Amino acid sequence: MVQTDIEYYKPKSLKEAIELFYQLKHENKQPIYYSGGTEIITFRRLNLIHTGAVIDIKGIPECMTHELDANFLITGAALPLTFLEEKNFFPLLSKTSQGVADYTARNKITLGGNICGQIFYREAVLPFLLTDSLCVIAGHEGVKSLPIHMVYNQTLNLSEGQLLVQLITEKSYLEMPYLSIKKRQQWETGYPLITFAALKKDDHVRVSFSGLCPFPFRSLEVERELNNQEVSINERIDNSIKYLPSPILHDIEGSKEYRLFVYKNTMMDVLIELEEK
What we know:
Low-confidence stretches: none
Structural class: alpha+beta
Distance between the termini: 52 Å
CATH topology of the largest domain: Uridine Diphospho-n-acetylenolpyruvylglucosamine Reductase, domain 3
Order of helices and strands: EHEHEEEHHHHHEEHEEEEEEEHHH
Largest sheet: 5 strands, antiparallel
Number of domains: 3
Radius of gyration: 19 Å
CATH architecture of the largest domain: 2-Layer Sandwich
């Protein structure tokens, strides 16, 4: 059963949200920020999250922004994945997020909730890693815009009291050739085995992954090997495996050996298709 003795707050500004967090922390209520709430509910049921107060960020205008101007796309962290799919300003994000759970769940799952979640798939971060996006982060020291590669390492590294407000992506990336491929072992729904997101920029293929290792990632070393035109595609793929940032996952969704098989075959398809564009 989910306990109901949780205080609920819905601030209307970033300043109010941050002040609330520290006030509730001082009162030993272990506050957490809340947008879609799907993961919070799931982990509360499993007794893996303990909190006495949630701070709903959907009342904060900056967290609900979705604007495309001449140079940038600004995407609020509290927007549901289905909203982003329907607007489709960022096709690679739309395609990648479509495989996150089912449509009903994605009505609740938000961009920031997926990126900052504890479940290791977190596919929504993959397009932002490929496009060198900026993360707008609010905290006790104010609001900062930081390159995603500065604050993301296996997970989004936020300090206590900080929250992800927006992601900012250069418009030029939205028009580049891309692929998003989600491989499952046998079902059309449910958790994927591996998700591949790829983008071609200046004749260089960028690739990010979810489900291959215990965290989503983009590796410049892996990309270097995959783009080495001096050797065959098979050699490039084999060489890239040496630079994976952790051992390949081995779990109920699929063995290490099967994931490796899927990686090799899918990367072959990705490289052949994008290099022709």
